[in-house]
Amino acid sequence: MVEASGAGEVIPPAAVEDVELYHPHSWWTRYVFSQDAKVIAIQYSCTAIAIGMVALVLSWLMRIQLAFPGALAFLDAERYFQFITMHGMIMVIYLLTALFLGGFGNYLIPLMVGARDMVFPYANMLSYWLYFVAVLVLVASFFASGGPTGAGWTLYPPQAILSNTPGGQDWGIVLMLVSLIIFIIGFTMGGLNYAVTVLQGRTRGMTLMRMPLTVWGIFTATVMALFAFPALFVACVMMLFDRLAGTSFFMPAIVEMGEQLKHGGGSPILFQHLFWFFGHPEVYIVALPAFGIVSDLISTHARKNIFGYRMMVWAIVIIGALSFVVWAHHMYVSGMNPYFGFFFATTTLIIAVPTALKVYNWTLTLWRGNIHLTLPMLFALAFIVTFVNGGLTGLFLGNVVVDVPLSDTMFVVAHFHMVMGVAPILVIFGAIYHWYPKITGRMLNEGMGQVHFWITFLGAYLIFFPMHYVGLVGVPRRYNEIGETSFVPESVHDLNVFITVMALVVGAAQILFLFNLAWSLRHGRDAGGNPWRATTLEWQTPQTPPAHGNWGRELPVVYRWAYDYSVPGAPEDFIPQNQPGTFPTREAGA
Amino acid sequence: MAQVVQTHSAKPHLPPDGRQGFVSDWASDQQVFKNVSWGKAMMWIFLLSDTFIFGCFLIAYMTARMSTVVPWPNPSEVFALTIGGHDIPLILIAIMTFVLITSSGTMAMAVNYGYRRDRRMTALLMLVTAIFGAAFVGMQAFEWTKLIHEGVRPWENPWGAAQFGSTFFMITGFHGTHVTIGVIFLLIIARKVWRGDFDTERRGFFTSRKGRYEIVEITGLYWHFVDLVWVFIFAFFYLW
C-alpha cells in the first residue's frame, strides 16, 4: 500500500465490499416489515413509548392510592401490587432497554459509524417483531383471568407463584415469564446486530477511538446485555417449570393456608442470584447509553471537545465490567456471609470511581465552553445534577450496615427512581430534542419544549426529594396504605398528597411532549441537514431524513475524531468527521 | 473502490508499543477482527452469550445438588443399561458422547471440503454429521423414555432429591433442543451446498443475500459449541 510522505498512517481500501441492501418494493416491506434500521428504530421507539404511557398511568393510579387511600374503589391491595409490578417491569425492560438499545441503537449506530445499515437487516426486523409480540403478551396479562402478576418487579419466589399473590396461580406470572423470554430472544437478535456492526462494520477511517461516545455507550451496554440477559432467561425458564411442571428449583417446602404444598428442596436465594446477576448490569445497560449520549449532547451544545475522551471510553468499559461483580448488594437483607457482604460493598463503591470520573469530565467539558442553553443542553445539565443526586444515595445503599435499615423503604424507591428512572429519561428527552430534526427534518417546538423541560425537571425533584424523607422515617415500599402507625408522623401524609399532585402534573407534562412530537411533524421549523452544527457523521448525510442506505453512492470517509469543536484556526467552530484537509485536530494520539 | 485515502494526519509518527499499541491494534480501522466476516463474528458473540445460558443452568444445577439435604441418585446406577445380564454403567451415555464427538470430526471435514468448493463431499459430510446428531437425539429420547418408565418425573423420582429429575430434563432437554436445531440447520445448509447455491450465488429465501461457502464453517462453529457443552454436561451431570 501507498505510504504517505510523512510516514503517516494510510488506510487501505474498504475491508468489506459495499453491502447489497434489500430494496423494499411495497408499502408493507417498506414501513411495516421493514429491514431498514431507521424504520425499525422508529418502530421500537413508538412501541416503547406507547407501553411506557401505560406504565405512567399505572404510576398515577398508585400515587392516588397512596395519597388518598380508597379514593379509587377498584384499587384494592391486589390491584396495587399488580400495578407496581407492571409499572416496574415495563419501565425498566420494555421502555428503557428497548428505547435505548432498540430505538437509539438502531437509529444511531449505522449512521454514526458510517454504515449503510445494520449488518443483518433481516434479523434486525425479527428482533423488533419479537419485541412487539413480547409487549402484546405482556399487555394480554391485563386481560387474562386473575389479571397481571403482582409479585413485584423482582418476581421473587416463592411468593411469585403462590395462590395468594395476584396472578400467582392464574395466568399473570406465566404471561410475564413468557413475555420476558420472548423479549430476550428478540433482544439477542438485535444485540448481535449492534455489536457486530460496531466491531466489524465501520467505514474507512472510523477507528474505535474515533467513535462518538454515544456509540461506545450503546455498544458496551449491548455487550453487557448479551451476557446479562441469559441469567434472566434461565431464571424465567426455571420459574416457568416451577409454576407449570411442578418442579422445585426455587420452591422450598412450604405450607400455604394450612396446606403442605408439593414443592420442596428448592432455593429461593438461587433465583435472587440469577435475577440480580441480570438485574444489576441492567442498571448500567440503561445508564451507559445515557452516559454516552449525554457526552455528545454536552460537547455539541457547549461547542467544545469532550474532556478526556479516552478516559471516558475506559470509564464506560470499566463500569460495564465492574457491574457484573456487584449484584449481591441487592441481597444484603437476604442474608449472606459477612465476607460476601464486604466484597460486594467494596466492588459497589469502586464503581463510584469511574462514574465520578465521568461526571468530572462532563463538568470540565462545560468549563469555559460556549454553552448554548438549547433544549438538549438543558436536559443534559439536568441529567448530570440528577445522576449525582441519585448516585450519592447509592453510596448509602451500597454499604451493608446503612442498607439494612433502609432496605425496602421508600428511600430505596426514591434512590432508584432518581438514578435509573429520572436520569436516563432526561437523557432520552434530550436525545429526542437533539435528533428529532435528523429523523423528521423538522425542529421540535421550542416553547412547548421549555415548558416540558422545567415541569419535568423541577417536578421530578418535587416528587422524589420528599420521598427520601418519607423513606428515612421508615415508610415501607410496596404497601398500598400505611394506615395509623405510631412511627409515621403526620407530615408523611401531607407529603404523600404533595408527591401525588406533583406526579400528576409531571405526568401531564409528558402528554404535552407527545403532542409536541406529533405537532412538530407537520408544523415544526425546517431543520436543514445539520441544525446543531455538529461534527458526527449522522449530521453529514446527503439527505435529511437519511434515505434508505444512508449515504447515497459513496460511503463517507472519516478523517478525524468526533469532537473537533472550536478548533483554533479553523474557519468554522466545528469540523465534521468526514472533512479532509489540514485543519489541526485535537484528537488524542493513536 | 480501490483508491487509498489518507485518513490520519501526515505528521511523522511511529506505531505505539506497549499498552497503547495493544489498544490501537484493537481499535484500528473498520474492523476489530481483520478478515473475519460479519456472520462469523456474529456466531462467536452469540456462542459467548449462549455460554452464559448454559453456565447459569449448570451453576443452578450444582447449587441444587450441593444444597440438597436428601440423597442425590447415583448416576452410575441410574444411567446403567442391562446388556446380556450385566449392568453396564453409563454405557448409553458413552455411546452418545462418542457419536457426538465423532460428528464434530465429520463436521470439521465438511468445512475443509467446503473451502475446497467440493460440493458433493461437503454436502455428504454435513449429511453424515446431521445423521450422527439425529442419532444422538434419538438415543437421548430413548434414555428419557427409560427414565420416565422407571418413574422419574420433573417433580419426583424413586431414588432421592426431586431436583435430580428437574435438572436432568431441563438441562439435557435444552441441550437436545440445541442439537435438534443444529441438525435442521445442517440439513438446510447441506441442501444449499448440494444444489450449488454458493457456486451460482443464489440468493437466500429470507434475507435475499448471496450465500458463501463460509456458512459451512459458521454452522460448524455452532456444532462444535454444542458438542463442547455436552462435554461439560457429561462431566458435571453423569460423572460427578
UniProtKB/TrEMBL annotation, chain A:
An MF annotation (GO) of this entry: cytochrome-c oxidase activity
Membrane topology designation: Multi-pass membrane protein
Xref: Pfam families: COX1 (PF00115)
Entry-linked SUPFAM superfamilies: Cytochrome c oxidase subunit I-like (SSF81442)
Domain of life the protein comes from: Bacteria
Gene Ontology cellular-component terms listed: membrane
Name listed for the protein in its UniProt record: Cytochrome c oxidase subunit 1
Automatic annotation (TrEMBL), chain B:
Molecular-function GO terms, alphabetical: cytochrome-c oxidase activity
Subcellular location: Cell membrane
Main location: membrane
Transmembrane segments: 41-64, 88-111, 123-142, 162-194, 215-239
Annotated membrane topology: Multi-pass membrane protein
Domain (Heme-copper oxidase subunit III family profile): residue spans on this chain: 43-240
UniProt-listed CDD domains: Heme_Cu_Oxidase_III_1
PANTHER family recorded: CYTOCHROME BO(3) UBIQUINOL OXIDASE SUBUNIT 3 (PTHR11403:SF2), CYTOCHROME C OXIDASE SUBUNIT III (PTHR11403)
Protein task: Cytochrome bo(3) ubiquinol terminal oxidase is the component of the aerobic respiratory chain of E.coli that predominates when cells are grown at high aeration. Has proton pump activity across the membrane in addition to electron transfer, pumping 2 protons/electron.
UniProt name for this protein: Cytochrome bo(3) ubiquinol oxidase subunit 3
Organism: Mycoplana azooxidifex
